[in-house]
Structure formats: structure tokens, C-alpha cells
User: Which sequence fits this backbone?
């Protein structure tokens, strides 16, 4: 069976940036408006006042300093607090497909191939723009690919799950060139009105090209091994869906946006991910000394520090575990691929590393790669 290789990556980064200072100003203005509107209930102790946020709180809680978004005007409007995307006609590309095309074009250029060489497109993201037709099929048409395409959602682990699936298809000989694309418009499903999480997410799109190793025309990474695992939990969730109307839940409801029980997630996910990576390494005969780099899911600086220390048996050096969280925030499934795309060119043949993403599900996916 042919070995699969990552031959190209691409990143679409929106042009608009929201700094922590801007975000805090908008959120605190929203909180003041809400508290004024509910002053009587707050005075009667029927409801609690919304506390202010702060830049120090955000950095201490997450390590995030800013985030890219497709629309900042709506997010920073205290009377709105979510993006404003214009309605598109059915004859126009969807927003997800549009940013996917940008990231894929960059990835294909790095791989030295064109869209016509692609025979598999997987659109893997936390929130797909529509139920059907699959956004991946629209992307397939935009880039001029053949073969077939489909959407998949394993939340923040979607990229690594998609890479495993594409690599398996290449090994089986069913496809020759695959694109796994992660258009993460997290600003649309995020709850910007919740102090505990209003700073977490940012928008981005990443794309990864996979081919048989013998088809690689330039520098590439061999996919040595992949591993995925899931374990059900409701601690990270979004309850919106197509049955919402049938339950008479069309009103503005908190549980229809991103929700998480942060303390339980921290307590339960970190041991799961650390053990998953340790087991994967052991089965491949790898030790920490064999690893040049870890490209981890960019959810929280403290979480990544914990995982890195468990995997390496010590605090990783900055170049061993690069973080992009401070600039991009949590970009769901795209985070580990941003880190891989931006911090892999310096590796030399024989250097090994692990791409790992984890999140809702719970889910965790790891990909062991080697610079060829």
C-alpha cells in the first residue's frame, strides 16, 4: 500500500482583528446595558448582575491577546454582540466555500498541483454552514476537483480525523490526492455575551493536501501513523439544530450557542489527551527524545502547557511546542494546522512530530509525521 504524505498546507486569515481591549470595551458596555434593563430583578435578587470583563482576566484565563474575525462590527456592537454577514443568493458561493477556496489555493500551490488533480475534498469543521448540499461538494466545484466530497464534524478534532480518513483512502488506493479543509467561522456560533467565554474564539480556514508519498514533488511530511478516539460528553456542546423549530425553541436561547463546563473539561480532557498521545507514541516505538515538535490544538495556553509537559516529560522549549493562540485565539479544528503550517519548514529530513487536536465529543486525533 502507498504511504500517505502531507504535501501542502494553506491558511486563510481574515483581515479584521479584535484586540482584548476592544472586546472588553464592547462586552462591558453590553453588560451595563443588560444590568440597567434588568435592574429591578437584580435588586430583588431574582437574577445576578453581569460582571465586567478585563484584559488581565482574559490573558490569565487563556493566553489569548487578540483574534481574527470576518466581521468585527457586529461583534463589537453592544446591542448586537455577534457578526453581521450579508445574505447571499443561491447562485453565490457560500461564505465557508469562499474562505475554503482561498486556503486550498495556497495549499495546492505548495504541493505543486492544481484543483484538477484532486479527487477527494473533506470539509471538516465544527459548524457547517448548512445541512445540505454538502459544503464540501460546493468547494469541490470551486477548485475544479473531480472525484467526490463530503462534510464531517468532530468539532475541534475535525482536522486530524479528516487527515486520518484521507490518509487511509490514499493507502487503500481509492484516491490519489485529497484536500482536508477546515473553514472555522467560530464567530457565528460563539456566545460573545458570556463573560466566562466571550474571548475564546476567532475565525480562520486551513487546508491540508495529502498525496501518496511517491507523488510528492517537493518537501513533504510522511504520515507515519494516525489515531483517533471519542468518548461522549455534554460538557462542550451547542444544542442548535434542524429540530429546533419542532421544539418551539426559535427564540434567542443561551444553549443554542457555544457552551462548556470549563472546569470539568479541563479535568477530564487533559488526562484523556495525554494518555492518548502516550499510547500512540508507545505503539509506534517513539519516545519524547524522538520528537522534534508538537503541533497541538490551540484552545488554552494552560492546557497546552500541561499536555506538552506530560508528553515530553518536561516543559517543552518554545520551538518544540509552538503556540499561535495569542494571535488567533481558539480556532477550533484549524488551530493545530495553523501551528503546523507556520512552524514546520525548519525541520530537516528525519525529524518527527505529532499533530494533535482535541475537544467536544470528547474527541482526540493525533497524526505522527516525519520530514522527508
Assistant:
Amino acid at each position: 500500500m502507498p504511504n500517505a504524505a502531507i504535501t501542502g498546507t494553506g491558511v486563510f486569515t481574515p483581515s479584521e482583528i479584535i484586540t482584548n481591549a476592544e472586546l472588553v470595551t464592547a462586552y462591558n458596555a453590553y453588560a451595563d446595558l443588560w444590568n440597567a434593563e434588568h435592574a429591578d430583578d437584580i435588586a430583588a435578587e431574582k437574577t445576578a448582575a453581569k460582571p465586567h470583563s478585563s484584559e488581565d482576566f482574559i490573558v490569565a484565563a487563556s493566553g489569548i491577546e487578540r483574534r481574527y474575525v470576518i466581521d468585527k462590527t457586529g461583534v463589537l456592537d453592544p446591542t448586537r454582540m455577534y457578526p453581521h454577514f450579508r445574505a447571499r443568493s443561491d447562485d453565490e458561493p457560500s461564505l465557508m466555500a469562499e474562505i475554503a477556496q482561498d486556503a486550498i489555493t495556497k495549499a495546492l500551490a505548495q504541493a505543486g498541483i492544481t484543483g484538477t488533480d484532486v479527487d477527494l475534498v473533506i470539509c471538516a469543521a465544527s459548524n457547517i454552514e448548512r445541512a445540505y448540499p454538502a459544503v464540501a461538494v460546493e468547494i469541490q466545484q470551486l477548485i475544479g476537483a473531480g472525484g467526490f466530497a463530503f462534510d464531517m464534524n468532530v468539532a475541534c478534532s475535525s482536522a486530524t480525523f479528516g487527515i486520518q480518513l484521507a490518509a487511509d483512502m490514499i493507502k487503500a488506493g481509492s484516491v490519489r490526492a485529497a484536500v482536508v479543509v477546515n473553514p472555522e467561522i467560530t464567530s457565528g456560533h460563539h456566545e460573545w455575551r458570556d463573560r466566562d467565554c466571550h474571548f475564546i474564539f476567532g475565525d480562520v480556514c486551513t487546508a491540508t493536501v495529502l498525496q501518496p508519498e511517491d507523488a510528492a514533488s517537493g518537501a513533504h511530511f510522511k504520515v507515519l501513523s494516525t489515531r483517533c478516539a471519542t468518548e461522549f460528553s455534554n460538557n462542550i456542546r451547542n444544542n442548535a439544530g434542524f429540530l429546533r423549530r419542532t421544539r418551539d425553541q426559535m427564540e434567542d436561547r443561551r444553549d443554542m450557542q457555544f457552551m462548556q463546563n470549563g472546569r470539568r473539561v479541563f479535568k477530564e480532557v487533559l488526562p484523556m489527551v495525554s494518555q492518548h498521545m502516550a499510547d500512540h507514541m508507545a505503539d509506534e516505538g517513539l519516545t519524547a527524545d524522538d520528537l522534534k515538535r508538537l503541533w497541538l490544538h490551540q484552545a488554552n495556553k494552560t492546557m497546552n502547557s500541561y499536555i506538552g509537559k506530560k508528553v515530553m516529560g518536561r516543559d517543552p522549549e518554545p520551538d518544540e511546542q509552538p503556540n499561535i493562540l495569542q494571535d488567533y485565539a481558539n480556532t477550533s479544528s484549524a488551530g493545530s494546522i495553523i501551528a503546523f503550517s507556520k512552524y514546520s519548514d525548519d525541520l530537516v529530513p528525519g525529524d518527527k512530530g505529532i499533530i494533535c487536536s482535541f475537544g467536544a465529543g470528547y474527541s482526540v486525533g493525533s497524526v505522527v509525521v516525519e520530514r522527508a
Q: What stands out?
A: The longest helix spans residues 262-283. The CA atoms of residues 137 and 149 lie 5 Å apart. The chain is about 30% helix and 20% strand.
